[in-house]
Design a protein that fits this description.
Elements (H helix, E strand, L loop, with lengths): L3 H13 L4 E2 H12 L7 H13 L3 E3 L2 H4 L13 E4 L1 H11 L9 H9 L6 H29 L5 H50 L3
Antiparallel strand pairs: 1-3, 2-3
Helix pairs in contact: 1-2, 1-3, 1-5, 1-6, 7-8
């Protein structure tokens, strides 16, 4: 299972890959991506920044460079964080990983936020893996409800049914995304075939 610190670390790297930011703006963007993971405080963020700085994945940039950053007052310079070459490499490695950890609740939300920078085949594997994980969860929830229905009070039953309905909605949503990814992939494949055929035809003697 993906650790919360790992998810946060790599999400920070992803956000900083768009350009340097000071802590306040970085926290705002992380909260928008991670959502309910949630209630991200400076008490969580700054240890993460310290950890990434110590690992050489991000760095604090100098005062002259800070004045170039949008949102940083030149009158009251703030600490600004930037991605290093090692940080960029670590982020790209994380984005390319489609293993089971990327299907978990917190990791999946973070990974999807960077799908535009993820290889199409990796995106499809993550979506399919997430669907499998949700289908397993849905089956377990339904089995549990069937076994305990007679002993369960009304509110506990409604809560469990709410979980089932939520999992069903997400499975349907994932199926739509997977169908879209496959359709886009097929279109690209057809476009490459047409382009290849056109080049081949252009080389034929007239």
């Amino acid at each position: 299972m993906a650790k919360r610190t790992d998810v946060l670390d790599h999400t920070v790297l992803g956000v900083l890959s768009d350009g340097p930011l000071h802590g306040y703006e970085l926290r705002k963007r992380l909260t928008a991506i991670l959502g309910p993971f949630r209630a991200l405080s400076f008490g969580s963020l700054y240890p993460c920044l310290h950890r990434l700085t110590g690992a050489g994945l991000i760095e604090q940039i100098d005062a002259v460079a800070r004045e170039e950053i949008v949102g940083v007052s030149t009158k009251r310079a703030r600490i600004v964080y930037a991605l290093t070459a090692d940080g960029k490499e670590a982020f790209e490695s994380w984005v390319a990983d489609a293993g089971p950890e990327s299907w978990e609740d917190e990791a999946f939300a973070a990974r999807m936020a960077f799908f535009s920078r993820t290889n199409a085949e990796v995106r499809l594997r993550i979506l399919e893996g997430r669907r499998t994980r949700l289908e397993e969860r849905l089956s377990a929830l339904q089995d549990s409800l069937d076994r305990t229905n007679e002993r369960m009070d009304l509110y506990a039953e409604r809560l469990q049914q709410h979980g089932i309905e939520g999992a069903e909605r997400e499975v349907s949503w994932l199926e739509e995304l997977i169908a879209s990814e496959r359709g886009t992939r097929q279109e690209r494949k057809q476009a490459r075939a047409v382009k290849k055929a056109a080049k081949k035809a252009a080389r034929r003697p007239r």
